[in-house]
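Q: Given only this backbone (420 positions), what sequence would you predict?
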């Protein structure tokens, strides 16, 4: 029979979660079903193969353009290089998360259902006011999901801007050329690329419309990869920070007579220790999934920020027409790398505060069993929950500043090399 808190967790599970839904659909569009309990995985293999083939075709077209304009100037093919990097990283992410699909499914299911908090035995104890405690913990979880939705949907709006720019640019270019300048009335491709085709008499194969649609889909694939997998990290880390916050609240009130009577405190603190062990395993799973893909993301983001800064410097010399698009692109990539560090810092900060909460509860007035559990928890929680970047560094605000500084140094080096 479920206790009152387990029933509350089931109600939270059925709440609409807009951010999580978009994460699941974005991954599903790339052939990765992270929520098999909600939808079938039958078309995923086809979607994954189709996405890989289309992305490879676009990357080949971009590389062909880069090779054709390599001797002209770096400004001529910098946009193609940016898109090549983005599509390549998207494919790497897709294959990486497919290889960790079982772990992603388990993490997402555990997060959405609140499985870590289920069957703790906490509400099977003789608590002073279990309904008040259940209401407090429920409000913390609901507030966490609101924060997740706001953060994910904000990132969704930011990522949509460069996608809309690339998808709508050829149409506005056509209107400008045909009706304002009145020079030529030809539809141009979405971005600089050379899509191979052959002439069959007076016809082209593949026709221009197919090549146009192929390149139009490029920004959409970038959207699915950038938004879907980065937002997955947002969901998992925000929920983990909420779990640590719940544990902190329980530890702080473990010696409070208004919450736990003295006769139940040893069992109550055992439940807290059990929750700590579950959170530790959950954190290790997140670390295992994201450890190396974050390293790839940080390296590529540094290169992209460097190239965008260089592009801005050239645009300022030529004109301000493209400044809006470049700034949107820069904001998107900056936010993309910032999400990793800001949310990882949130988890680390909560875990550091947890160590002091173990010590600051009134353990000195409790039984020897209670004191022993506190000593063990102080030992185990001495090390904060950090998320590493391939084992070389830890995600944090400090590391974010280092990434931006490294991008600035690369930009100065690139500009000096080009001036020579």
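A: Predicted residues:
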């Amino acid at each position: 029979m479920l206790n009152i808190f387990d029933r509350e967790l089931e109600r939270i599970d059925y709440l609409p979660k807009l951010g999580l839904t978009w994460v699941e659909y974005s991954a599903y569009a790339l052939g990765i079903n992270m929520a098999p309990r909600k939808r079938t995985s039958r078309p995923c293999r086809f979607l994954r193969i189709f996405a890989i083939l289309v992305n490879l075709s676009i990357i080949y077209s971009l590389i062909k353009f880069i090779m054709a304009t390599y001797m002209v100037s770096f400004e001529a093919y910098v946009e193609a290089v940016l898109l090549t990097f983005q599509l390549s990283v998207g494919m790497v992410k897709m294959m990486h998360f497919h290889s960790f699909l079982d772990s992603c499914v388990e993490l997402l299911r555990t997060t959405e259902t609140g499985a870590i908090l289920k069957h703790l035995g906490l509400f099977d104890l003789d608590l002073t006011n279990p309904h008040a405690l259940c209401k407090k913990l429920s409000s913390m979880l609901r507030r966490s999901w609101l924060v997740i939705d706001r953060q994910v949907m904000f990132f969704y709006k930011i990522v949509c801007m460069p996608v809309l720019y690339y998808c709508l640019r050829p149409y506005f270019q056509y209107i400008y050329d045909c009706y304002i300048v009145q020079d030529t009335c030809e539809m141009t491709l979405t971005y600089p690329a050379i899509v191979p085709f052959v002439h069959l008499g007076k016809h082209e194969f593949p026709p221009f419309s197919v090549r146009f649609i192929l390149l139009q889909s490029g920004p959409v694939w970038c959207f699915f990869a950038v938004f879907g997998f980065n937002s997955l990290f947002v969901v998992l880390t925000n929920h983990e920070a909420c779990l640590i916050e719940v544990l902190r609240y329980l530890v702080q009130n473990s010696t409070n007579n208004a919450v736990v009577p003295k006769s139940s405190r040893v069992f109550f603190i055992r439940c807290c220790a059990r929750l700590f062990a579950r959170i530790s395993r959950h954190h290790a799973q997140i670390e295992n999934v994201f450890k190396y893909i974050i390293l790839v993301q940080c390296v590529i983001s540094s290169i992209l920020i460097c190239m965008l800064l260089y592009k801005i410097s050239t645009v300022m010399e030529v004109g301000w027409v493209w400044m809006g698009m470049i700034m949107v692109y820069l904001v998107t990539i900056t936010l993309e790398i910032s999400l990793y560090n800001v949310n990882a810092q949130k988890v680390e900060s909560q875990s550091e505060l947890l160590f002091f909460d173990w010590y600051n509860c009134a353990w000195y007035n409790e039984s020897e069993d209670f004191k022993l559990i506190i000593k063990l928890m102080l030992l185990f929680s001495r090390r904060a929950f950090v998320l590493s970047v391939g084992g070389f560094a830890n995600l944090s605000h400090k590391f974010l500043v280092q990434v931006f500084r490294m991008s600035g140094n690369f930009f100065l080096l690139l500009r000096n090399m080009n001036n020579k």
